[in-house]
Write a structure and sequence with these properties.
- Two copies of one chain form a homodimer.
- With 216 residues, chain A is an all-alpha fold.
- Chain A is 75% helix and 0% strand.
- The first copy, chain A, is built from six helices and no strands.
- In chain A, helix 2 (28-48) runs antiparallel to helix 3 (60-95), helix 2 packs parallel to helix 4 and helix 5 packs antiparallel against helix 6.
- The radius of gyration of chain A is 20 Å and the shape is elongated.
- Chain A starts with 11 loop residues before the first helix and ends with a helix.
- In chain A, 54% of the residues are buried.
- The model of chain A has no long low-confidence stretch (mean pLDDT 95).
- At the A-B interface, helix 1, helix 2, helix 3 and helix 5 of A face helix 1, helix 2, helix 3 and helix 5 of B.
Chain lengths: 216, 216
């Protein structure tokens, strides 16, 4: 995305055109973060539709806190979508560096390793934040406005998809890190931990949504 | 979304603000369709990054067809996101109709049933189209550009999340349809069929992505 347009300023139809273009930026990493951001926004909407309603006064304080946290995660994931695009742009540029001489090859290789570290770190952060969105969706599903139960469920599904999608982006970039980069060793356990959170959180959130849809 | 702005013209940051606002429109139905549209866009990107590359010439024709189909589904899902917002806007307006007299209550009830039929039909169509996107992701994952394997995986996850999210929107609106509306009887089997497709397609696509990430 060589013209450096900010993703968040793009009209939606143009974002989708760019996602589908032959330019690898923005790609799956940004799309995964955006899915998480949409999930966070939906948690905030469910909270908004619950706060101040007499039937839900019991959980008012909890729901205000969930709303606050959801808006915070929405902002961070939107920012991570941009960071992912920027980081992958640097990767693409590093790949195009000359590799004629030994010196050029060495310079290209270290530029690529540095770029790949960001391209792995950023989606790992996105996966962590998406796991927090999934947790917020799981917590609001049983206590939020019943008429918005499906929105809490969609939030959970988008957060889980964003989480798992971000992890795929970590995994594809990991083999290109410098051999002595500590993240090579630490990432697999963190990936497994986050994958387990995705499965557990999605199951719990959807069970809560199912219970509310079954008894409208 | 009373000002009738087209969702696709909104800058991304504003879309996310509206998704998270106290206005129930746009809501989870639109977000689910948009997730599917992002998935479709990513399938098209993987195809673009594969077409014309010598190492992938064997599947060129298949991949051109997958690209064409993905762009078609992207357009339809973007349109369905808008239709979902418009339909839910009509539901919200019907809910606000007066209900003082018997005549008013009868008019409100039939307006609401008519509005709910669209609010159930549109996400059901979105679920069908998202299932097609999932199928495209499953088909491109093993044969597309290996460097974009994670993008095919994100496409599958977004399509599956969009599919399941759309079905939640069908399910929450179904109880409000007219008692003699045929969709009441036909929807449960269709929902079960699409849920099975989501599970099967997601599993197959991610197995293909895993195989490619394991052998880079």
């Amino acid at each position: 995305m060589s013209d450096q347009t900010q993703l968040t300023d793009l009209p939606l139809h143009e974002l989708l055109e760019r996602l589908g273009s032959s330019d690898p930026v923005p790609g799956g990493g940004s799309a995964a973060a955006l899915a998480g951001a949409m999930g966070a926004a939906l948690v905030a909407m469910v909270a908004e539709l619950t706060i101040g309603r007499p039937g839900y006064a019991e959980h008012e304080e909890t729901i205000r806190k969930l709303r606050f946290d959801a808006l915070d995660r929405r902002t961070e994931l939107l920012d991570l979508a941009q960071q992912d695009a920027d980081a992958y742009d640097v990767v693409v540029r590093a790949r195009h560096l000359p590799k004629e001489s030994d010196a050029e090859r060495a310079a290209r290789s270290s530029a690529l390793e540095a770029a790949m570290l960001d391209a792995a770190r950023i989606p790992l952060r996105a996966a962590v934040v998406a796991s927090e969105v999934l947790d917020l969706a799981e917590r609001i599903a049983p206590i939020g406005n019943r008429n918005a139960a499906s929105d809490a469920g969609v939030a959970a599904q988008l957060a889980a998809a964003g989480l798992r999608g971000a992890l795929l982006n970590v995994r594809i970039n990991l083999p290109y890190l410098a051999p002595d980069e500590p993240m090579r060793a630490s990432a697999p356990a963190e990936i497994a931990r986050l994958e387990a959170l995705a499965a557990k959180g999605e199951h719990a959130a959807l069970a809560a949504v199912d219970a509310r849809l079954a008894a409208p």
